[in-house]
Amino acid sequence: xxxxxxxxxxxxxxxxFSCKTTxxxxxxxxxxxxxxxxxxxxxLNLEVDNPKTQKxxxxxxxxxxxxxxSSKSNSSFSFPLKNQKLGYQNxxxxxxxxxxxxxxxxxIEVISNLEPKILKFTLINTYPHDNKAYTQGLEFYNGVLYxxxxxxxxxxLRKTNYKTGNIDLKIDLEPRFFGEGITFLNDKIxxxxxxxxxxxxxxxxxLKKIKELPYAKKIEGWGLTNDGKYLYQSDGSEKIYKLxxxxxxxxxxxxxxxxxxKVKSLNELEWVDGKIYSNVYLKNAIVIINxxxxxxxxxxxxxxxxxxxxxIAERDVLNGIAYNPATKTFFVTGKNxxxxxxxxxxx
Length: 347
Prior knowledge:
The chain is mainly β. The chain has one helix and 32 strands. The strands form eight sheets. It has an eight-stranded mixed β-sheet with strand order 26-27-28-29-11-32-31-30. The two termini are 36 Å apart.
């Protein structure tokens, strides 16, 4: 926990009050009552230290600039964390006294209280895969497997025959674009780019490009999936953004945690039965994420699969998750791997 103390020279967002401020330093949030980490099942108890025994009219509390409540005089304030996002929570107290206001702030971290299940898998089939494909996105649409690949000058969108590894149709991106994740929504294909803050939208049947969409938020493009209504995008951090598919505006986001640890480098994403399955860059594993709160509910260790591929200089890490609803199996591969694997995750 870190304290960010500041006197009142700025008003708290979302509050309406008019008062004078002071350079005096009378009040601090009582740190002895606060833990560094909480879960969403905990209750946060706040109170203000008043060593000079000034008469306090009220204390207004905000978390992440949203008002959560207030207390009269200097009574303690309790706030259930049930609906708070995982991650850091910036707490501010606006102490009103004698016609003046003083501010103090601190920070806590909300973590997951769930121990992720360690899941095993069964290898069903092994198929050939183009070892020149730097796999970024993988998804089934109407029984056909599509793949988005990366690297500048080599990025593509492909319609493939997963049984043979053949490419039935391929769209090359302009050399200045580094292709990233793909997903299908409303008979359109969305394809991200890495640093170019641009998404491409294609007709799902013809792969003809319909339009380009600039990112509404300046983030990197990594993985992409959807829930049938919204897009979900990773940017290489612990965040997954929920986006409006019409303009890519951010509707919401979650911070992804496994117990007390942020899970960063979230990469390719796949939505299956209300959960997000994600590769973690540089890790031969898939994490299963609750999209409503960012809690990692399961981990699948796929390290043994890389040993089944042919070592080449260009071979990179595991990346690519496609769920086939017809077989209820997952298809996974890696960047420049010469094999694709059909697996069943044993829940």
